[in-house]
């Protein structure tokens, strides 16, 4: 018996379903890379590099402009006008600025040097004329200062102000010196006239042609000239009065007027402040030493002449005493003999012997 094979049939229901999906557009944007950690260091590095590059370029530009400015300054003493400056039209202004600033500074230096020359004449003029002088020089220099750069112009204006103030102080000092010089010259002229008169009176007194009282009056008049022209002038500083007194006494001793020194050394005279004192006491120690040295030299030069005259006086005095014709008092006698002892033209013993007679 033949067996026929038949495949079995498995009949089951197909439950599969077909689902249709929609196609959507893909995201084409560049996505930032995923980095683990802080990535800001890259931005900071790029920023720092950019700043450094900008700073280098700025410094290079500043250096270039500075060089151009210095070139303009250097040419200020070489060329006559800024039209002669050479350079790129874009950078030429820097050269011009350097040139103008330097010319302004030179102008300030010029007016200061000119004032040092002009003060010789300005010292003789009053403050009003000085103000006119300063106004004129400011008017002349302002155009040069006005063309300078802003910073240089501000500095120059301050310098000009300081120069004006210094000029005023200098003029005040020099003008005061000029006034003192004129007064001193007048004092010396007056004093020289008085010394000539005193010298003539001194010769007459030594020859016996002028009595003691009259000679003493001439001495007082000569000293009065010194008091009136020097110590009673309130406008003179005390140091100037001392110097003038020193010079007047020195000139008197140079003319051998030792009697004048004796008078001012032993008599108090007005000091201009309501009091009286010796002229010698008003001088400094150094000045007193100078006068004393001049006095010793004058004494040495005139000793013989004074001794001859005084010996003649003593001889006449002794003759009057011996003849009983002397009419003077004791004070008159000592007043005559004591100065001779002081001047060493007579010894103390000789003086005493005459008084005993």
Give the fraction of residues assigned to helices.
over 70%
Strand content: under 5%
Mean of pLDDT: 77
Low-confidence stretches: 52-61, 72-78, 88-94
Which radius of gyration do the C-alpha atoms yield? 54 Å
Kindly state the number of beta strands: 2
**Element order, helices and strands?**
HHHHHHHEEHHHH
Structural class: mainly alpha
The spatial strand order of the largest sheet comes to 1-2
Main sheet attributes: strand count, strand direction, barrel closure:
2 strands, antiparallel
Overall morphology: rod-shaped
Question: Helical element count?
Answer: 11
End-to-end separation in angstroms reads 223 Å
Task: Describe what you observe in this structure.
This protein has 357 residues and is an all-alpha fold. It is built from eleven helices and two strands; from the N terminus they run αααααααββαααα. A hairpin with a 5-residue loop joins strand 1 and strand 2. Helix 1 crosses helix 2 and helix 4 packs antiparallel against helix 5. The protein is rod-shaped and about 110 Å long.
Give a short summary of the structure.
By secondary structure, the protein is mainly α. Helix content is 71%, strand content 1%.
């Amino acid at each position: 018996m033949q067996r026929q094979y038949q495949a079995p049939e498995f009949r089951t229901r197909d439950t599969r379903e077909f689902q249709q999906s929609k196609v959507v557009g893909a995201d084409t944007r560049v996505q930032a890379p995923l980095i683990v950690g802080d990535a800001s260091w890259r931005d900071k590095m790029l920023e720092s590099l950019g700043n450094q590059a900008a700073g280098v370029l700025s410094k290079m530009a500043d250096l270039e402009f500075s060089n151009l400015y210095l070139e303009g300054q250097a040419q200020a003493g070489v060329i006559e006008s800024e039209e002669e400056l050479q350079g790129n039209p874009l950078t030429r202004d820097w050269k011009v600025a350097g040139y103008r600033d330097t010319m302004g500074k030179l102008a300030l230096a010029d007016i200061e040097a000119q004032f040092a020359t002009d003060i010789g004449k300005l010292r003789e003029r009053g403050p009003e004329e000085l103000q006119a002088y300063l106004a004129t020089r400011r008017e002349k220099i302002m155009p040069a200062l006005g063309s300078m750069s802003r910073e240089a112009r501000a500095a120059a204006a301050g310098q000009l102000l300081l120069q004006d103030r210094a000029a005023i102080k200098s003029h005040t000092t020099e003008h005061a010196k000029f006034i003192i010089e004129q007064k001193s010259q007048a004092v010396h002229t007056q004093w020289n006239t008085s010394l000539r008169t005193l010298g003539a009176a001194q010769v007459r007194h030594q020859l016996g042609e002028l009595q003691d009282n009259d000679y003493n009056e001439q001495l007082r008049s000569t000293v009065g000239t010194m008091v009136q022209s020097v110590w009673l002038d309130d406008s003179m500083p005390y140091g100037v009065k001392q110097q003038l007194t020193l010079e007047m006494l020195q000139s008197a001793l140079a003319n051998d007027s030792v009697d004048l020194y004796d008078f001012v050394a032993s008599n108090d005279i007005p000091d201009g402040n309501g009091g009286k004192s010796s002229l010698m006491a008003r001088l400094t120690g150094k000045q007193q030493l100078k006068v004393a040295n001049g006095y010793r030299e004058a004494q040495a030069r005139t000793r013989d002449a004074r001794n001859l005259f005084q010996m003649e006086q003593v001889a006449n005095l002794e003759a009057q005493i011996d003849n009983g014709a002397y009419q003077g008092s004791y004070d008159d006698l000592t007043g005559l003999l004591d100065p001779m002892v002081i001047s060493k033209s007579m010894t103390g013993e000789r003086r005493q012997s005459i008084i005993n007679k």
